[in-house]
Amino acid sequence: MDFSIFNLLIITGVINGLIFGTVVLLNPKYQSKPNRNITQVAIYLSLNNLYYWLVDTGYSVNISFYEYLYVPWNLLILPFYIYFVVSYLRIELKKGKLFLIPFYVFFLFHVIILINDLVLGGFLNKEIIHLCYYIEEYVSILYTVFLIYKTFELIRKYEKNAVNSLHSDVVISTRWLKQLLIIGVIVCSIWVFLTMYSQYGNLRQFDVIGKYFLWLSISILIYWLGYSVVYHNLVFRQRTDLRNTIAIKEKKTPKTASSLKINEVKDLITKELLFLNPNFSLSLLSEKSNLSEGYLSQLFSDHSEVNFSSYVNKLRISKAKEFLTNPKFKNYTIVSIGLESGFNSKSVFYDAFKKYTGMTPSEYRKMS
Q1: CB-based burial of residue 124 (10 Å sphere; 0-12 exposed, 13-18 middle, 19+ buried)?
Q2: Quick one: 70 and 217 in the same domain?
Q3: Where are the beta strands (DSSP E) in the chain?
């Protein structure tokens, strides 16, 4: 048996992924479509690594017909990640089931090989079979690149629509989804390099190290998946709770643009809670008030103690203070409160809060 620290780290990631998947799938508390989809991603990543781990450690030689147990799990990983993104962001995906076709095609290919070897006695030409293996490898790579691009497009479409979202809709953070995809791009790049190198390279030691790095990268991805899902689901639930505590007053449409004064503009911002939209800007205020951006900017400069950006940030800080001092939300994360107060990231929230109060949100909460 060939066992090393690399193998230990890899199998730890596999076990972590399988345990995470089992807990989420069996626990009624986590029974939601996004959770089921991301759990399957973790399971398929784990099973993919497990197959190669058994080969690398030599355990596979003790398993009868091991070579026939191969399933192209890698062709299920990104389709289910797309399903997760779609269900998590609550966007539409037409003909999404078609993304599973490559998996079924190559799964059938391996079933045919199994029948050929065990039933037909090796009837099919071995050169043709090896050619099919190469085709599978390169199709898998190209298909993975396509799905990564498709996922980025879906996320970008959501971000574009979120700019003009209603306050009643909690704008979901997409940064971590893109970070996971970037890791996927790195893993895919390693995969492409190793595939090309295995055909044209001749340094076996480098090839072995590269494969360890690939499998370890997948293990890290499994860990991050588990952490990200738990953390961001918590943030989303807390933001939804915070949102439900905010009473949105009846909207009032201004009768004429010329009748709006600075106080009326401020009333529009506060009564409709426009400042809680992280994408709120003079452009959006212009659409709401039927006034030009230039006029609004001048209005704040001439008739307000602070400019537009400072005014909006003060409103957000005030709302954050309400959340931080409310005993009901004492166990809620600073990130949830910052995002629900209208800031688009933890760092921006911390910087603005300290600028206006002289202390961090955590310090302010302790003093309350």
Answers
A1: middle
A2: yes
A3: none
d(CA 256, CA 285): 15
The string of DSSP codes covering 220-261 is: HHHHHHHHHHHHHHHHHHHHHHHHHTSPPPPP---S-GGG--
Q: Are 239 and 170 spatial neighbours (Cβ–Cβ below 8 Å)? A: yes
Q: Is the dihedral of CA 88, 90, 92, 95 positive or negative?
A: positive
Task: Give CA–CA dist 206/4, Å, rounded.
Answer: 17
Count of domains for the chain: 2
The pLDDT value recorded for residue 237 is 66
- If asked whether residues 195 and 277 sit together in one domain, one would say no
Residues 338 and 209 in one domain: no
> What's the domain range around 90?
5-244
244, 271, 295: which is the final residue of a domain? 244
Q: What is the mean pLDDT of the chain?
A: 79
The length of the chain is 368
Residue 179 has pLDDT above 60, yes or no: yes
pLDDT of residue 160: 80
On the question of pLDDT at 256 being above 60, the answer is: no
CATH number at residue 281: 1.10.10.60
Which range, of 94-98, 192-196, 264-268, averages the lowest pLDDT? 192-196
Q: For residue 318, what pLDDT band results from cuts at 50, 70 and 90? A: very high
CA distances (Å), origin 147, targets 120, 186, 360: 36, 14, 41
Taking every pair of C-alpha atoms in the chain, what is the biggest distance, in angstroms? 89
Tell me, yes or no, whether 95 and 215 share the same domain: yes
In whole angstroms, what is the distance from residue 56 CA to residue 212 CA? 10
**Do 119 and 177 reside in the same domain of the chain?**
yes
- Residue 221, class by beta-carbon neighbours within 10 Å (0-12 exposed, 13-18 middle, 19+ buried)? buried
Q: Is residue 252 part of a domain?
A: no
Same domain, 238 and 283: no
Q: Which two tokens stand for residue 35?
A: 């959770």
Match 């003009």 to its residue by tokens: 164
